[in-house]
Amino acid sequence: MDTDLVLTVGIVLLALTLPSLLSAWVEQRVPRVAAVMAIASLGMIVGALMTRPGGYSFSEVPSVMLGVLARLTS
Fold it and tell me: For residue range 20-48, what is the model confidence (pLDDT) as tens digits?
């Protein structure tokens, strides 16, 4: 799998973790699903950072995500 795609999916999954965490906190229950999502997304992000030669810089991330989105929509 492409490291750009793994990084993008990891970031999107991490963003989707926040509403699940907030929902569990408001309803006073254990955030099991959010914890699994957070671990999976952090694993994907770290895996992409370690697999790509040279890694990613913060300034590259938006262009990488737009590139992945462009590849998926075309």
Answer: 999 999 999 999 999 999 999 999 999 99
Q: Is the dihedral of CA 8, 11, 13, 19 positive or negative?
A: negative
Structure tokens at 67: 């590139």
The whole-model pTM stands at 0.89
Structure tokens at 23: 């929902």
Look up the domain containing 58 and give its range: 3-73
- Alpha-carbon gap, residue 28 to 34, rounded angstroms: 13
* Contact criterion met (CB below 8 Å) for 65 and 8: yes
Mean per-residue pLDDT, 14-21: 95
- Structural tokens at position 64: 């990488």
